Amino acid sequence: MQGDQIKEEHLFQLIKAGDHTAFALLFHQYKEVLFRHAYQILRDLDETEDVVQELFAEIWEKRAQLPELAYVSSYLYRATRNKVLNKLNRGKVIDKYLDHVIQNNPPFHEQTESWILEKELRTIIEQEIAHLPERMRHIFQLSRQEGLSHKEIAALLNISEGTSKLQVSNALKILKSKLLQAIVVLIAG
């Protein structure tokens, strides 16, 4: 089936059936406009790329649950906006926590306790990195510990830049979630 023959109202039906051509058409037709839509709010290229990639990855992964729509574009705009708002809200939670830590910075004699807490958090982060799936861990380490760009990682591992970005993004999500859980436990304990 030719991409230009697919009508918008049938895209999700075809994608639900696992049609890669329909998904590729959806991606190429909407990626730039959704990128611009998200960038207007986020004003950060990497964050915006993450939002758009996450959206399309989620569409493919959850294709069986896609609704039947006459206007796919409306759905995509709404989904993009929701992802942007979720990203902003997560950032606000982390910012509030950092503000709390800064405002409640312990006096010098309590610095030892802070140092111990920081050391425990570093250990937890190292353990969680070790628990990442092997490929994700390797790409994450190349990016964050070796300082390689997504382009360099893609060339080194013979993968696409998008795959590199998605693996690092997924690793960061996992690590942030685990780190927040650890922080809550350490602070409460």
UniProtKB/TrEMBL annotation:
The keyword Mitochondrion does not apply. Residues 124-174 form the RNA polymerase sigma factor 70 region 4 type domain. It comes from Sphingobacterium detergens. The keyword Transcription applies. Pfam families: Sigma70_r2, Sigma70_r4_2. Keywords: Sigma factor, Transcription, Transcription regulation. Belongs to the sigma-70 factor family. ECF subfamily. NCBIfam families: Sig70_bacteroi1, sigma70-ECF. InterPro entries: RNA_pol_sigma-70-like, RNA_pol_sigma-70_dom, RNA_pol_sigma70_bacteroid, RNA_pol_sigma70_r2, RNA_pol_sigma70_r4_t2, RNA_pol_sigma_r2, RNA_pol_sigma_r3/r4-like, WH-like_DNA-bd_sf. One of its GO terms (biological process) is DNA-templated transcription initiation. Residues 26-90 form the RNA polymerase sigma-70 region domain. GO terms for molecular function: DNA binding; sigma factor activity. This is RNA polymerase sigma-70 factor (ECF subfamily).
